[in-house]
Fold this protein.
Amino acid sequence: MPRNIEKNKIIRDERHEQILNSSLTVFAQKGLAAAKISDIAAAANLSHGLVYHYFKSKEEIYIEVIKQTVESSKAAREMFLSIQGTPLERIKKIAETNINYINVGDNAYRWLIIIQATMSEQTHKEIRDILANSLDVFNDVKELIEQGQQTGEIVSGDPSYLATAFLSLLQGLVFYRIYWKDEVPMPDIATIMRLLTNSKVPY
């Protein structure tokens, strides 16, 4: 590939990602309905027309953000499934990975956008199709809890309730990270794992 063509491609790719990354705060704070291309352009420090050069609409940007985040989640899930160790150790890794994820850059905004899209009745069918497998992680955690109860590592109780409590805690941390930033401390892993760990098992 000629140098100029390669350089132009790099510039286009960088600009594309710049727009997507800048849209995160806009979508997270305003939602898709209230967000405007002009808001995204301002956040990216680009002209209104230049944003339209890369994307046809705010909906196209939104869908691309959803796709990127879902693909990242799928890769993380595959990694979780390949982890060796006891059920409790594997659940602990899920908690550690998620906490590390929302503490990096604008990832908390990505997660919040996914939550908003999942809950909204106005979410476009294409986005709903992308989010169709969102229960996979819940089922993974529920299965690990069931396995951990059989080995005595995890507290007794309905695995569905425990999985819901565990994942709700992780999702709740997204709001604390976005709205209170460093004013409210994030719980350590030991505190989170205390929810599931049998009192006779060290964590």
Q: What stands out?
A: The CA atoms of residues 46 and 197 lie 50 Å apart. Residues 3-193 form a domain with the Tetracycline Repressor; domain 2 fold (CATH 1.10.357.10). The radius of gyration is 20 Å.
